[in-house]
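new request in #modeling-help
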Amino acid sequence: MPEAQRSGKKGIKMLNINKETDGTKLVLSVGGRLDTTTAPELEQEIRENTEGIESLELDLKDLEYISSAGLRVLLSAQKIMNLQGSMVVKNVSQPIMEIFEVTGFSDILAIE
Amino acid sequence: MPKKSVREMSTWQRMRHSLHGKAFRSMILLVIFLGVSATIFGLYLFTNSVRKEYKSEAWHLAKLAAVTVKGEELTDKIEEILYYYERNKGELTEEEISLVSDDFFEVTRDNLHALQETFEAEAVYIGALDRRDMRMVYIIDSTEGEGYLNPGYYDKIDDEELTTYKHGAKISRFERLLGETNKIPAYISDTDEYGYLCTAGELIYSTDRYDVMAFSDFDMSHVTAMRSRFLWQYILIILIISAIIMLIVMWYIKRSVIRPINQLSDAAFAYSHDKGTERRKSKHFEKLEIHTGDEIEKLALTMKDMETELGDYIKNLTKVTTEKERLNTELDIARQIQEGMIPHIYPAFPDRPEFDIYASMNPAKEVGGDFYDFFLVDHDHLAMVMADVSGKGIPAALFMMASKILIGNAAKLEDMSPAAILAYVNDQICETNTMEMFVTVWLGILDIRTGKLRAANAGHEYPIVRHKNGSYELYKDKHGFVIGGMSGMVYTDYEIDLSPGDSIFQYTDGVTEATNADEVLFGTDRLVEALNKDTDADPEHVLINMSGAIKDFVGEAPQFDDITMLCMKYIGMDQG
């Protein structure tokens, strides 16, 4: 069942995470901003829900901004999934793609 | 309700409104009220009681008189007198009076008089109630001297009096309430002629027209005197008792209510006058000894707890504040250490005219994660580093220091190209990177003699290069992965040929991601545009211009990220 979650200051939605899983595959739809304040939430989501997951899919269709804190979370997710399965990043918007290219993350992440 | 608050009142007003004052006034009012009520009621009961006694006594005397004088001879005498009365339709003449006042008359009169004296009554007499004409007709009067009433003398009477003598006085509802059931045929009157009297009557015999009765009169003026005396004694006693009770109650209230409250109030006042940190050790409420066993004691205990808790809180706060100040001082020192570690003296290489280099770093917090570095690897090679650690603040600063040192050391090792240096440093950092931080690095090594710039880029921004007489352009170099992300990464060297007059500008994303109040980013386009506004500027002024451009763009919005820039102009060997 997908669940919407809120985060951020003063009730303004800074980050939205939608969760869908069938037991072995986990799809996280991440929307909004992934920065120093919101990255810990995504990190916690990944940490809590990836046990026994063989395939992690991150849908970044609604992601507007990612900072180095967000990149860190993606990197650690990649490392986790490297040990138990695979990870793929989908629907990356142009600005986010540029960041991936500049930082070399485009070579490390599986992007579709 | 007083209009002013307690603090605005004068001393006199405060006294008036104080708890003590209020209690005192309330007590007095209560005492007065109770006292007056008690007096009135007591007086009423007393008076009633006394009157009843008198009535009773009068009636007994009347009964006794009736029994004493009863007889045939009396009946004859009375008829005789009444005969004259009826004939005269009123009083008897002097002759008739003499006529009737025979021995029997006098003996009877003496008897009656004896009774009067014995009982200390005002008068004892035989009278006939003339029902037809509503009159009391005096027959034989025991009075001696002036007050003597001749036989045949009469007074008007009314229904009430008549009924009273015949059937007893009406009992009021109140008296019935008190359990009074006896109807005493006694009548109390207050006339100018006879004074304040209580008269009781006992029937001797009745005819169609007359009720012949024996009467006794008692002087009630004693009662008045008794009443006065009673009243004064009573009031006095009540006052004394009230005063005593009032004192006791006041003392009690004072002790169990007013004094504790005043103590609490004083303690609170003293507490509020403690300065700041004195309150840590405040013991004003602690010192109170209130054991009234009621809500006031509860309040005192609560205040004591509150005082202790507040004291602990302040103690804690002070500790925390001191700690925070210590941290701030340490942060400041850390900042200075950071600043000291990266090149900050300009001109940087005054004895090397072949190039001009300038760089600056402005952290968003006290310490930052961005850094630059430049140093001479050897006499002919200048290394330049631009780096950005993930994150900000202390964690980034620590990682920054480690990275800078590692890169600097690696660069000084023999025969390492930029790509090799980055790979080497990456593996080193990955070994101990428990927090999984990373740093983007651009590393360039310039051959000062030839102007050839070899560089490698580990996830960092594109450098901006200006070839002489041209404009600044973004140079899209090949990017490897960030340093510290994963071990075993490979990087690629590339070369840029610099001719004298060419410049290279490097920066961190704090520049391109500087945001204004409308949440618009500065961006690379604006960056290149700003650089091209003054293409001939020397490195120092390039940075000054850029700082200005960023500041203008950002306006009032706060600095979100570290802003770090480096500019190097290659002048070449010939200018030396």
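bot summary: The two ends of chain B are 94 Å apart (CA to CA).
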